[in-house]
Amino acid sequence: MFKAGWMVLVPPRVGFFDLAPLGLPVSAGAAVGIVLLLAAPACGPIDTRKVLKGAPGQIVVSLLRSSLRIR
Q: Is the pTM of this model over 0.70?
């Protein structure tokens, strides 16, 4: 899960901070992200029950709290 988080955080950082000095627009990085999102279904379905059972309890509680907007 931690490694997956880095895969989500690094591309926007590269798109916003590293491409600008190279003279590339942010939309170029966004286009790459769109292509990756469109290609994601080719990887197959994710068994969310298996993922939730393998996740630490605090992460699951935090996720459910934020999705249900319980404060």
A: no
